[in-house]
Amino acid sequence: MASYQETLSSNELDDAVIMETTNINHVEVIENVIDTLEQDDSAMVSHTPEGGYLWKFKYGSVEVFVQLTGKTDEDTITVWSIVLKLPAKDEPKLMRQLLEMNCSSTLEASFGIIDNQVVVISTRTLEELSPAEVSRLITIVATIADDNDEALQAEFGN
């Protein structure tokens, strides 16, 4: 039996990768990831009039939100989870600790403040976003939030 190996030129290989990433159904990928992480059938989704999606699910002791603004390359996926409500005790110490953690332990995510709440957040455009990257973004935010919320609340919560 004869065997052969197909070789693709660099441009053909680039085109194949682009085709593979442009045919990804990000909604399906996000829902599959949430399915593997969510607890107690807690996942909920809502649709925006502009064609976006917002999911919420429970992971450990936190709620995780995933927002997809649309389905074009310019649209974004944002994943966040609230870990502490503000105001907090000793906010200068809290801010220093969060900045240090941003540099050492948050990977593609970071701590930030939205509406007087400390969050773990990550956002990215959909251009060339692979299913593995979607899974990683959601998992990183959920894990970092769950690993840190109780300690932050115990030390800095009111």
TrEMBL record:
Q: Which domain of life is it from?
A: Bacteria
What SUPFAM superfamilies does the database record attribute to this sequence? Type III secretory system chaperone-like
Query: Which Pfam families does the record cross-reference, listed alphabetically?
Result: YbjN
Q: Which organism is it from?
A: Halotia branconii CENA392
Name recorded for this polypeptide: YbjN domain-containing protein
